[in-house]
Amino acid sequence: MNPHFIFNALNSIQDLILKNDMRQTNKYLVKISRLIREVLKTSDKESITLEEELDMLGLYTDLEKLRFGEDLSIPYYCRIRRLSKRNDTVTALNYTALCRKCV
After folding, report:
1. Distance from CA of residue 97 to its chain's centroid?
2. Is the torsion defined by CA of 50, 1, 103, 28 positive or negative?
3. What is the DSSP letter of 90?
4. How many angstroms separate the CA atoms of 42 and 48, rounded?
5. Residue 11's Cα: distance from chain center in Å?
6. What does the pLDDT look like over 14-36, one tens digit per residue?
7. In this predicted model, what pLDDT tens digit does every residue of 49-73 receive, in sequence order?
8. H or E element that contains 57
């Protein structure tokens, strides 16, 4: 996980606390903790299921939307024909890293 991303996430949490927006603060903390847990859980693996990767990608994009507000739009479309989200594997954090470079 990129240290710059963690720094930005902590700054966003601090900003929400200073604005006394406890609902958004809680939402952000839940998502960042889930993402960190998933990254740590998969960090020693070379590949993970497509479902795990897409879940992490969803958490990452949700955090960025919370951080940047409604002005940020991150549409992604995943068309799967022969892959099974639960059985087929991909390189760990491959798509999440690609998305991070685009935001």
Report:
1. 10
2. positive
3. E
4. 7
5. 16
6. 999 999 999 999 999 999 999 99
7. 878 888 888 888 888 888 887 777 7
8. helix 50-68
- Residue 94 to residue 98: CA distance in whole angstroms: 6
* Contacting residues for 13 by C-beta, under 8 A, at least 6 apart: 25, 28, 29, 32
Token code pair at residue 8: 């930005």
Whole-number CA gyration radius for the chain: 15
Long-range contacts of 94-100 (CB under 8 A, 24+ apart): 94/53, 95/53, 95/54, 95/57, 96/53, 96/56, 96/57, 96/60, 99/57, 99/60, 99/61, 99/74, 100/2, 100/5, 100/60
Q: Is 44 helix (H, G, I), strand (E, B) or coil?
A: coil
Beta strands per DSSP E along 17-97: 47-49, 89-91
Residue 50's CB: how many other CB atoms inside 10 A?
19
